[in-house]
Amino acid sequence: VAPSPVSASSSRMWAPPPRVVVPQIGRVAGTSSAIEITDIKAHVTIRDTIAVTTIELALANRSNSAQEATLVVPVPPAATVGGFTFEGPSRESTARILSRDEARREYDAIVARERDPALLEWAGWNLVRTSVFPVPARGTQKIHLEWEELLVPTGDRLDYVLPRSDLQYGGPIWAIDIDVTSTTPIAGLYSPTHEVRTVHVDERTARLSMTDRGAAASGSLRLSVVRSAAPSATVITYPDPSIGGGYFLMLAAAPESAESTGLLRDVVLVLDRSGSMSGAPLEQAKIAASRIVDGLRAGERINVIDFSNGVSRYASEPVPIDPTVREDVKRYLAGLRPAGGTNLHDALVEAMRQSAAPGSLPLCLFLTDGIPTIGKTLESDISAVANVSQRRVFTVGIGPDVNVPLLDRIADGSRAIATYVTPGDDLTAKVTDIAMRFADPVIAAMTLSAAEGGRDAPGRIAETLPSILPDLFRGSSLVVLGQYRGELPFSLTVAGDARDGRRRLVVEVDPRKASTSNSFVPRLWASRRIAQLIDAVRQSPNVAASRPITDLADARMRELVGEIVRLSTTWGILTEYTSMLALEGSTFNDWKALETACSDSLNGRAVRTRSGYDAVNQGINWNRQKAESNLAGTKQYIDSALTNVQSQSLTQCGDKNFWRQGQRWNDASLAGQAAPTIDEEISFGSERHRQLLWELVEDGRQSAIALDGEVLLRHRSKTYLVHNRVSGVTTP
What pTM did the predictor assign? Predict the structure, then answer.
C-alpha cells in the first residue's frame, strides 16, 4: 500500500530531535551529526564599564536535506541578550536567557537525551537557547549572538570573562579580538588565562588579538583592564586553607601617559666582537646598538664596551648624550671589527665598574655569541663578578655556543632578563624589543611589603615571586605572585624610586573575598616556583662534582626534585623535566619512579648541558616560566629541536588537574597512590551521577566530570570512579 502524502509540517513533527550546538565545545553534542561548526569568531567591545560580546558562528550542513539545531550558549550571570540574527533564511528567532531553574531543567533534559559528558561543563551557567532552522542542505547558516553586561569595578580594575571550555575537543580555533575604550586613562591590560597581542594602545583606547599560542589555549578568556592616570596596583586572590590562607596575584601597571619623562637612564652597551661574530651577527648587533643610542634622550648617558681577547671601550665612563656624542658613539660602533676569542669575564668586570649618575637607572645590554675562551672561564669566577653593582644586565645569547645558565644568572640577579637568538630570528628586532622594554622607567628598585593595622606585617605574605622585583616601565605591567596567611584584611605596598622621589603603590587585600574561580593564581605561582627550583638545581655550586648533583641520596636535591614533581603534578604544569607525566603508560601512581625520571632529566640536561641548542631551549623555557603570567604556557614547552611540545594527556579543570592514563583521567591530588581506595563508582546518566554533577556545580568544579572515559575524582574527602560515556559515540 502506498503511503499517504505527508505535509512538510507533519514530517518535521516526526523528525528526530534537533541537534544541540554549544559553541564553547566547538561541535555538535551527542552522536555524529550532519551539522558541524566550521567557524567561530568573538568580538568584544569594552567601553568604560559596559562590555558587549558578539559571537559569530557558522553551521555547515553536510546532508542533502535541511536540518534543525538547538543553539545553547552559556553566558555570564549578569548578561542580557542584545541581539540575535541569522544571515540566511530562517524563521523568527526565539532566543532568550533561561532563568536558573529553567536552565537546570533544560540542562538535565539535554544531557539525558544526548548522553554527552562534554555538556556537563556548562551545568549551573545561565543559558541562551534558540532554535536554528533551516540549516540548508549542503549549505551554511551563519548566526550572530550579542550579549551585554555591566562590569563592576574592583578598585581601578575591571574584569571581563568570555566563557569557553576548559577542555579541548578539536573544534575550530576561536578568532577573538577586543576593543577597549575608557574615559579614564588605561594603565594596563592583562590576561592571566591567554596570551594576547596588543595591536594598538594609546592613552584611552586599545585593540587586542590572540597570539597563535593564545588562540590554541583552552579555557575561559579573562581580561583585566586597569584604569588610572597614574601608576596603580590591584590584587586578585584565591583561598587555600591548606596553606593557612591562600594565594595572591598583584598587578602593578603604569599607563602610557605616566611621567613622559621618567627616570633618566645610564646605558652601557657591551658587544662581543670575537671572530665568531663576523658577518651578520656583528653587523646586526651594531645596527641594534645604534638604534638604542638614537633612542636616548637629553640628560641620559651612554658608553660602549667591546671585547674579544681583550676589552676596549668608547670612554672611561658613560658620557651625557648630545648630538655630537650620539654621532661619535655610532661611528665607534661602525668601526668595530671581529677578531680573536671571547674574554667574557673581563668584559663583565669592566661593565660592572662603570659609574652611574646619581638618580639614574643604570642599564646594560650584553651581547655575546660564545662561551668564555680567554681569561677566567669558570662559571663560578664569572658569576662572582656579576651584580656587584646596581646595573641591570640584559644578556643576549646569539646562537647555540653560549653558556646559558651563566647568562641567565647574570641577568636574573640584576632585575633583568636573558634573551636567546636562534636560527631564523632577527637579532636587530630582538634587541630593539629589549630596548623598548627598558624605555621610560617609572619606578625602579621596587620592593614589596605587607602591613596590618598600620604596622608592618611581614608574616602575612610568603614565597613571593619574583623574589627580586623588576623595574616598572611606562606602558607596561608587573605581575607578582605569592602566598598570604590569615583571613583578616591587610595591605600590600610596592615602593620604589621615581624621578620625583620615593613612590608607593598601596592595595588593600581582603582574604574573605578570595574566590576559587581565580584558580589561575595558584597555577601561575606554581609555574614560577617550579622555575625557581629548577634554577636552584642547575645553578648548584657542585656542578663539577663527579657525583650527579641530583642524586636522590642527597637530601637537598631529593627535596628539590620532590617539590618539582609535586607542584608539576598537583597544578598541572608541564615542563621538559616532568614530561613523563604526559606519556602514555606513565608511572603516575609510582612516586619514586616519577622522582627518579625527573632527577635523571635534570641531571642530564639542566646540570650537564650548559651550551648548545639543548641548553638554549632550556634557557628559553626557564626565562618564560620564571615570569609566567598566563596559563597558555603552563601546558607546553620548547624542546631541544626548538619546536613547541604540548600534551593532550593533561587537562586543567578550574582549580583541579587531571592526567590521563589510557581511557582514565586521574585526579592530580591522587598522584603517587598505587591503588587509591575508591569509595563509590558512578555511571553516567544515573541519578547519583546527576547528584554529583550539581554538587560539583556548587564548588565551581563541574568541568571535572566533563571528560571522556573514566574519571578518578577526589571530591569532598571521597574518591569516586565516574564512568562517563565517550563524546560523539552512539549509546544503546
Answer: 0.92
